[in-house]
Design brief:
Length: 603
């Protein structure tokens, strides 16, 4: 093994980058860290966008490969210091030369080097005689390449060698342990690899200082199996920019409906296999038993929900949750939503807020720009009006042509609205036309339900009570999704910020009100899931009884789990997954990677 020449220290970021950043007014939060993690050297040589997402924006998501990788690292993650191991008393080795240290193994060793601008945690360091050998654990089997490993992995090991040398250790070689083969593979640390490693360090600092997300890979096999593909959305971003360059940015024609257009690769799962847990009995209590949540209700057998199968917990009314259960949920990143007994969304508890500061700053800046607010708001309202029209056209026995015409005209007027107030007027007019025909989508057996107009706070008829509850559930889901992707649910563009109101959640849910909320209500009434005797009336207000609410929640969750073809990308994913995709695409708009928010409009 040859170590090659000793390299020059990593160059500091160019002052011109700072000037360019200020000139472009990019949404950065301070200077990037001075030291580049060794793992980021691996990432930048594999995919610059992946490195930026993980290091500069602190984005991360698990998949089967990352979980397997952590399992492989379990032994290496138990720290043991990089120092001579003491000999126990009475050991035969006491007779040996005390100047000759015994071989031993250090684990989870963290080192830094200001000279090279690198920091990192070394899995294993084998110490033998006067030299050390870093060993990096990797899942999978040794690749069939002459060097023994791919360049990103070799550069990561090279960075570890430089760290050891700069901290006074003699290090001439490195190894990778492939768990699939259960064998170590030696890595040649030569001058060319050292030069490549330090250039990667400089490139990482350059990208972080520029504050601009690198473009996604184009149709790359590297995206398959990447845990961040649902955050990166490479094919989606490339398509939207392609449509914009071709003058088709409005994406009115759904992909996948034309035989000449193939749907995009669906690189992320179609749906989340985990399910929400709802507790609405005012005597209910959620407690923790190992890896299981146990829900106790008086005079009933306890209900169990495994943490690994739970996506969120929704607590209605005065149902209780113990501190250990809440703590474990927050540790696992499982959000807890709180509702009033009538279903009004009160708030949420989350354990791990997104660390993507760039996205938050971009959102706050955009929210203070009236032109940006109006541009985004127009898209939300236009999509809502057109989706209302689609629902009427699909489900009304004889939708009045004048109503369909008026909705089309109002959507065209909304495109050219010059203020949020004007846009609100167009939306209100469209809502009056739409709700005047809502009962026309009910079947004959549902004659007991009637709707004269939309009303709320409190709802004064059964249909409005159902609509309000479903909208509250949708608001909750969008608020939790937005927080998970790094956006602030309280700072909106169409719905201007108001204390206690999740304005951005209300913004994004506009186009989904008819597709999810109204659709669930109509289906629940038409199929007999909700009956006239499921309501309680008091002082002019109408609310669902507990049993009816339980059935409506189940109907809502079935809708959210239903697969639907995305109108822009063509692949089929669940409505719940659609919420995340749309939220992340809004983030790309705010960061300047996309020009327009892609609407979700069905035909």
């Amino acid at each position: 093994m040859t170590s090659g020449r000793e390299p020059e220290p990593a160059d500091p970021p160019s002052p011109a980058l700072e000037d360019r950043r200020r000139a472009k007014s990019l949404p950065l939060a301070g200077e990037p860290p001075a030291l580049v993690p060794a793992r980021m050297i691996n990432e930048i040589l594999y995919c610059e966008r992946l490195m930026y997402l993980e290091w500069a924006q602190h984005e991360f998501a698990d998949n089967e490969f990352t979980v397997e990788g952590r399992a492989v690292h379990r032994r290496a993650d138990r720290p043991r210091p990089l120092a001579a191991r003491e000999r126990p008393e009475g050991d035969a080795s006491d007779t040996e030369d005390v100047d000759e240290p015994r071989p031993y193994e250090a684990r989870s060793v963290w080192l830094s080097s200001e000279r090279y601008g690198i920091t990192g945690k070394l899995d294993i360091v084998d110490v033998s005689g006067g030299s050390v050998i870093p060993v990096e654990y990797k899942r999978g089997k040794k690749p069939n390449v002459p060097e023994g490993a791919y360049l990103p992995e070799r550069a990561q090991l090279c960075a570890q060698v430089l760290l050891l040398r700069d901290n006074g250790h003699v290090c001439e070689s490195a190894e990778i342990y492939f768990a699939g083969d259960r064998r170590r593979v030696p890595i040649d640390i030569d001058a060319a690899l050292i030069d490549t490693t330090l250039r990667a360090v400089r490139r990482a600092k350059q990208l972080a200082a520029a504050g601009e997300l690198p473009p996604p890979l184009v149709d790359s096999p590297k995206c398959n199996g990447c845990s961040l593909v649902g955050i990166c959305l490479p094919d989606e971003v490339n398509l939207l920019n392609e449509l914009r360059s071709e003058g088709q940015g409005d994406a009115k024609a759904p992909r996948g409906t034309n035989d000449d257009v193939e749907p995009l690769r669906r690189l992320h799962p179609a749906r989340d296999d985990r399910v929400p847990l709802y507790v609405q009995d005012h005597r209910g209590k959620i407690s923790l038993d190992g890896e299981v949540l146990r829900v106790f209700v008086k005079d009933k057998e306890p209900v169990e929900a495994r943490l690994s199968n739970t996506s969120q917990v929704c607590v209605l009314g005065n149902a209780q949750i113990t501190t250990p259960a809440l703590r474990r949920l927050l540790d696992r990143g499982i959000p807890v939503g709180f509702f009033s007994y009538a279903g009004w969304f009160v708030g949420r508890a989350t354990g791990h807020d997104s660390k993507n500061v760039e996205l938050r700053i971009a959102q706050y800046r955009a929210a203070t720009d009236p032109a940006t607010c109006l541009r985004l708001a127009r898209g939300f309202v236009v999509s809502k009006i057109l989706n209302c029209r689609t629902l009427l056209r699909r489900n009304h026995d004889s939708a009045p042509p004048v109503v369909l015409f008026k909705l089309t005209e109002l959507s065209r007027l909304a495109v050219d609205a010059t203020s949020l107030e004007q846009l609100l007027g167009f939306e209100g007019t469209a809502a009056r036309f739409y709700f005047s025909e809502l009962t026309g989508m009910l079947n004959e057996s549902s004659h007991a339900f009637d709707l004269k107009a939309r009303n709320r706070r409190p709802p004064r008829d059964p249909i409005n009570a159902l609509l309000s509850f479903c909208y509250a559930l949708l608001t909750k889901d969008f608020a939790l999704t937005l927080a998970a992707v790094g956006l602030d649910p309280l700072i909106g563009f169409y719905h201007q910020p108001r204390f206690g109101r999740p304005s951005l959640a209300l913004d994004l849910m506009e186009e989904f009100r008819p597709l999810v909320g109204d659709s669930v209500v109509l289906s629940a009434i038409n199929t007999g899931v909700i009956r006239p005797d499921d309501f309680v009336r008091s002082t002019g207000a109408v609310a669902l009884k507990s049993a009816g609410r339980r059935r409506l929640i189940a109907a809502y969750e079935r809708r959210m789990d239903q697969l639907v073809s995305h109108p822009v990308f063509g692949y089929r994913i669940s409505y719940r997954r659609v919420l995340e995709v749309q939220a992340r695409l809004l983030g790309r708009v705010l960061l300047g990677e996309l020009d327009e928010y892609p609407p979700f409009r069905t035909r």
